[in-house]
Structure formats: structure tokens, C-alpha cells
Fold this sequence. Notes:
Layout (H helix, E strand, L loop, with lengths): L7 H27 L3 E2 L3 H21 L5 H28 L7 H10 L4 H9 L2 H11 L5 H11 L3 H24 L5 H5 L11 H15 L4 E2 L13 H13 L6 H19 L3 H45 L1
Parallel strand pairs: 1-2
Helix pairs in contact: 1-3, 1-8, 2-3, 3-7, 3-8, 6-12, 7-11, 8-11, 8-13, 11-12, 11-13
Amino acid sequence: MVGLGEPDEPLRLYFLNWGLLGGAALLLGICLAVSRFSLEIEYDLVHVVAMAAGFAAVGHYFSLHRWLARPAFALISMAQLDLLFVCGTPLTYIAASAALPLQDATLSYWDQCLGLDWNAYYNFSITRPLVLQYACFFYAMIVWPCMGVPILLGLTRNFIRLQQFTMACTLTVLATAIISALLPAIGTYQQYGLSAETAAFKATGYLIQLDRLPLARDGTLRVLNLSQIGGIITFPSFHAAVAMLAMWGLWCLWWMRPLALITMGGMLIATPLLGGHYFVDVIAGVLVAAVAIVVVTRLGTLSAIMQVARRPVTQGLEAANATA
């Protein structure tokens, strides 16, 4: 790959990301082999994989030309995120099949300890149609970071931040899958005996989880169809994690900060209502994303230190060879 202003770090992160995705795919394959789960080969799966392969192929071709480095990195990152979706979603269902005791009472108690009243939040929102409209709009914002962030960072030559964003997403998906298996929960509406569907409102994210999670836990759902399975993680909230990752990813573009704050901040506020999340789910999602961000940024710092440390050694060897 050519055309990079800082070639070492973006390329190193690029290969690390493919390595992480390969590890996630291998983990999924092992889990499918040793469990009763299977992944159905159907249109959506083939479509996503084919689209990712197309993005990766075109991106690799573009990367051979210096003047096409911007779209190259954008396309490759979109390919990586598509494949992360293919690997990550089934892994959350396999993790849920551990069927550990539900922790809704514990999560509700943690909310109370923080002085956060979910019923008051629900009653405030449900009686205001305008709030419900905005909540639905912002909750759906989870779809645009997968394309919007790579395109914006790629076209503005923020290659390092783009690859860090991709890596942080991968780490976050894996972490949320593990944590959700250890602390499973069905969500707030069942816990508080509230309606998740009225004439003016439908908690779309929660209703998918309410339908799929029990089936994954009791062994009924073992054939995973990508077009039919959806998000089933309560704690930590993946919506909240994505909002945090997207805000951090776009923060290096000063002119995108207001839009990122509005859209991703709105998604954070809407997540408990539409996803049936406890407030601590949102807090935990933000913290998981923050840890992933620290890991990938420290990785870059460590790499820079190692490069500086190697430079005198390299220079010394070159001088020695020149005088030999």
C-alpha cells in the first residue's frame, strides 16, 4: 500500500485489524463446531460477505495508487466493519446460550443506587409525542457510523484514527459479547411491568431482544439467520458504545464535532427508552468503548516509542556497515 503520509503506523494497524478479524472468525468457527449452533447460508449473509469482499478488493487496488489512498482506506475499513458484523452478531447469541441467571434485579438496583429513576424517564418520554419522534430518529443513528466514520476519516486522510476506530469497534464487540454472557438481562420493560408497544410508541430494539434472547438461552434458537437475528445485549449497551466510539472517531474533525455531539448524544439519551436498557447499561457501554479507545491509542504510543528507540540502533548499524 502506498500514498500514506505516515506509512508505518496506518499499515501496522491495518494488518492488526485483519488479524483481529481473522481471530474473531476463527473463534466463531470453533464455537459453531463445538456447539449446536449453525450459521445459515442465506441471502443477507452472502450479500454482506460479498459486499465486504468487494470493498476490500477495490480498496486494495486503490491502495496501489498514491492518489487513491483516501478512498482505499475508507473502503477497506467499511469491509472490515461489515465482516465484524458477520462475526460479532452470531457470537453474541452463542455467548447468551450460557444461560447464566438474569441480572435485571441487580441492574435495577444499581440504577437506584445512582439515583436514576427509569419509570420517571419512561413516563416523561411516553407522554410527549415529539420526544418519541426524536428518540426513534436518534436511536436509528447506529447505522451511519459504520459507513459515515470510515468515509469521513478516509477522505480527510485521518488514516491512523480510522484504523484505530476500526480496531476499537472490534475490541468493543468482543468485550460486550463476553460481558453480556456473564451478566445477562432481559431489559427494563419486563422488569418494571411496562408496555414496550403502544399506539404511539414501539421499543423496537427491546422487542427484538425480548423475542430472541429467551430462545437463545433455552436452546430453541440454534440456527442463526443473519436476516432474522438482531441485538440481544442489555448490559453493556452496544448502542452506547457505538455512540462513544463514533464521537471519538470524528472528534479529530473540528467541523464534525457539533453534528457528532448532537446525533450520538441523542442516541445515548434515546437508548434506554428504545432498547429497554437500564441507565447503568448505557454507562457501562460508554466505559467499555472508553477502555477500547485507551487500548488502541496506547498501542500507537507504544509503537512510536519503540520506533524512536530503534532509530539510534539502526543508524549505528548503517554507520558501521558504511565504514566496513
